[in-house]
Design a protein that fits this description.
Layout lengths: L2 E5 L3 H10 L7 E6 L3 H11 L3 E3 L2 H5 L6 E4 L6 H10 L3 E5 L6 H14 L3 E4 L6 H11 L6 E9 L11 H4 L3 H17 L5 E9 L10 E8 L4 E7 L7 E8 L2 E6 L8 E3 L16 E3 L5 H4 L2 H14 L7 H20 L3 E2 L18 E2 L4 E8 L5 E7 L5 E6 L3
Parallel strand pairs: 1-2, 1-4, 2-3, 4-5, 5-6, 7-10
Antiparallel strand pairs: 7-11, 8-9, 8-15, 9-10, 11-12, 13-14, 16-17, 17-18, 18-19
Helix pairs in contact: 4-5, 5-11, 8-11
């Protein structure tokens, strides 16, 4: 049983608390912290939390709690994590870990110096579909991973602080690119070093200083490319999709707009449909178990089980730091319009993994470029001469 301090009572705080108070049932949130009494008190009453406060330090220092969960706006992450490290309490922090890599590195150093358990709450790598896909890729189902694509797009975040660059650290890239980048890392391999980024970003719709749309390419040491697409400009709900392409196969994932539950209504259902849904009439795509579908359930199960066992969770503060470093390079690239190197002061991955292309021999003189069945039933082979490099084709009659 863990006794928990919950920092933050907004959308993410509600999701986190609903899982923590329901999944394992033995864990209890004993303290809730929000910016105002008007936010903290109703939240505590809703979940039956015995104590509430508007002070981060008072909440962290509560003598009964042993675990701090940070669900605060981005500019408060470092303050909360350092407060937990100071009193040597285990801490879990929502995404992104910091507003930039320097903040993330400072938080990583603090928890490691304090010798406390820490976990990075990156929920979208814990969705049931994503976990299954990661397992399949790790078993070699797709062969060598060549390219990943992760997309998150919706009409924009819920709270005002997201839209203030000085508080959030940026716009759609830091808000949602952190999800997409880490999904790609899990498929490509976390021990494969990310080298450089090419990114386009712009403010297309909203009257804000930060970007509301971006597309980026991340080049990895293995030769793989991770692509992310993020937007606060997408209409029609929340679009969450991932793709993985390898030498031996492909995976497509659609997490939200096509959930397998589709409903049409003229009168509306009179309330909440799903996160980022823009209305409750017409064609709707409700979600059977939103907490599970977005990864929160499996995420906290992994975090708390790891805490109990004294092992590392799937997502760590180190992962959060790597993501922040990639995001920093993305912002530099969006400004320079060039490929920008990813600056990693800390790298704990494997040694250098150079790009390797697996060639297939057709015979002693030729490499196989491609094999396909044509409309007439014949098999066409595209071949490359090993000595001359000449490309030719030949047909095989299978009858």
């Amino acid at each position: 049983m863990h006794k928990i301090t919950m920092l933050g009572t907004g959308l993410i705080g509600n999701f986190y608390t609903a899982v923590l108070m329901g999944q394992r049932s033995c864990d209890k949130v004993l303290v809730a912290c929000a910016a105002t009494e008007g936010e903290a008190k109703p939240f505590a009453e809703k979940y039956g939390i015995p104590r509430w406060t508007t002070s981060i330090e008072d909440a962290v220092n509560d003598p009964e709690t042993d675990l701090v969960v940070v669900g605060l706006p981005n500019h408060l992450h470092k303050r909360a994590v350092l407060a937990a490290a100071k009193v040597k309490k285990a801490v879990l922090c929502t995404k992104p870990l910091g507003r930039n890599a320097e903040e993330a590195k400072e938080m990583l150093a603090a928890v490691e110096k304090a010798g406390i358990f820490s976990g990075y709450l990156e929920d979208l790598v814990y969705t049931p579909k994503t976990l299954k896909a990661i397992e399949s890729v790790s078993k070699g189902v797709l062969g060598k991973v060549l390219w990943t694509r992760s997309r998150e797009a919706h009409p924009g975040p819920h709270s005002d602080w997201f839209w203030k660059k000085e508080l959030s650290g940026g716009g759609a890239i830091v808000d949602m690119g952190c999800h997409c980048i880490e999904i790609g890392r899990n498929f490509i391999g976390k021990d494969v070093k990310p080298l450089e980024v090419m990114c386009w970003a712009d403010t297309q719709v909203h009257p804000i200083e930060a970007e509301d749309s971006a597309v980026g390419l991340i080049r990895y040491e293995s030769g793989a490319i991770g692509q992310f697409e993020v937007a606060w400009t997408f209409r029609g709900g929340m679009d969450l999709r991932d793709e993985v392409s390898g030498t031996e196969g492909t995976i497509w994932l659609n997490h939200w707009l096509r959930t397998g539950f589709e409903m049409f209504t003229c009168v509306g259902q009179g309330g909440y449909v799903a996160e980022k849904a823009e209305g409750d009439t017409g064609w709707l795509f409700p979600v059977g178990d939103e907490l599970s579908a977005l990864g929160y359930t499996d995420m906290f199960t992994d975090m708390l089980n790891s805490l109990d066992k004294g092992t590392q969770p799937m997502e760590t503060f180190y992962d959060g730091y790597i993501i922040n470093a990639i995001i920093d390079a993305s912002y530099r690239s969006a400004k320079s319009k060039k490929w920008e190197p990813i600056k990693l002061d800390i790298w704990r991955g494997a040694g250098k993994k150079t790009q390797q292309i697996a060639h297939v021999d057709y015979d002693k003189d030729h490499l196989l470029v491609k094999k396909e069945v044509m409309p007439d039933g014949k098999i066409k082979l595209i071949l490359k001469d090993k000595k001359t490099g000449k490309i030719t084709q030949k047909f095989i009659n299978i009858y």
